[in-house]
Amino acid sequence: MKGQALVTFIIFILSLSLGSCGSSTKTERKVIETSAQKKMKPIWLSSTSNFCSSQELCAVGEGTGRLIAEASGRKELSKIFKVRVKANTTIDSSMVTSTDKDQVISGKMEEELSQQIQETSEEVLEGVVTKEIYDDGESFFALVSLDKGKAGRIIRSRIESIDERLRNFIEDGRRHLLSQALDLIKVRENLHQRYQFLTNFTVKGPVNYKTIYDLKRKKALLGTTVYLTSKELDKNMGVKDYIRKLLIKNDFRVIEEKGPNHQFSVLVELVSQKIYFKVDGFQKNEFSLRVQALNKEKVKIGSISFTVTETGRSFWQSYERALPEIKRQIQREMGLLKID
């Protein structure tokens, strides 16, 4: 009996030992499988086509954290958006710029107009959503998407707003508004290309390049001449030169030597005043601009007047910083001269 009990006890101990080994082997196998799964990268890292519908634009971003990866994804999506728009649309370059003996029309898009396009693009990208996140232990990856329908509706709203302004400018017919219409139609064209790419639809505009050019040419052929003179701080006459370019763009002839053959005079004056500024090594200056328009009888018919304040390490640095805002305000208020 004692021998039989001993044998039974030995068998029990061996079974426990074997069971423990089997459990340990299973646990190790699970750990190995989990590690292997972690190392397997998702397919969307190399191809997003199976994860995004035809109604979406998708991109992948990478970063040291989730938020950085998502921001990188939006940036990549923006790049794809721009590249595909360029690949799928064409611009009538023959209508972008034109210069002849009667008028000069600039084909360079103003900074402010480019900003309008940028702001619309940023609003569109606010609709980007994150579909997937993957962490490989070193970097985060984000799969982001943009709904084409939603983006298209945002852009269409901007186009309709531009169309309303274009109609008003053409109906008004003043020179500075026709020039603004020419700039504005470039913004519309750029946005319309994006709208077409997203929706495959078009939105017919209220006016085309040719109509605006024809209206501007009629103004130019009138030969309205402006005598331009200036008194300003910069010996290079930066403000005067800018106004001269705007007048030419608005289809006026410009002369800088007084004579009998001009219908209007434009007098430019820019003065400055130092303002107390309690910061060592810097100074603050206020720049006051006054532009007056006189008719042939030397009667004042219109004016532009405003001040811009800027700081800098020197007077000239503050002036250089103020100049862009001075130019922007002049461009916006040219109609106040009332020389059309």
Question: How would you describe what is shown here?
Answer:
The structure is a single chain. With 340 residues, the chain is of the alpha+beta class. The protein folds into two domains: 56-217, no CATH class; 223-337, 2-Layer Sandwich (Double Stranded RNA Binding Domain), CATH 3.30.160. Helix content is 50%, strand content 22%. It has eight helices and ten strands. It has helices spanning 2-39, 66-88, 111-125, 148-172, 175-199, 209-221, 238-249, 315-333; strands at 56-63, 98-99, 104-105, 129-135, 140-147, 225-231, 253-255, 264-275, 283-294, 300-312. The strands form three sheets. A five-stranded mixed β-sheet has the order 7-6-8-9-10, covered by helices on one side. It has a three-stranded antiparallel β-sheet with strand order 1-5-4. Strands 2-3 form a two-stranded antiparallel sheet. Strand 8 (264-275) and strand 9 (283-294) form a beta hairpin. Helix 3 (111-125) packs antiparallel against helix 4 (148-172), helix 4 packs antiparallel against helix 5 and helix 7 packs parallel to helix 8. Mean pLDDT is 81; it is low at 20-37 and 90-109.
Nutshell version of this structure?
By secondary structure, the chain is of the alpha+beta class. The protein is built from eight helices and ten strands. The chain is 50% helix and 22% strand.
Keywords:
340 residues; alpha+beta; Double Stranded RNA Binding Domain; 2 domains; three-stranded antiparallel sheet; 8 helices
Please specify the SSE layout and strand pairing.
Blueprint lengths: L1 H38 L16 E8 L2 H23 L9 E2 L4 E2 L5 H15 L3 E7 L4 E8 H25 L2 H25 L9 H13 L3 E7 L6 H12 L3 E3 L8 E12 L7 E12 L5 E13 L2 H19 L7
Helix pairs in contact: 3-4, 3-5, 4-5, 5-6, 7-8
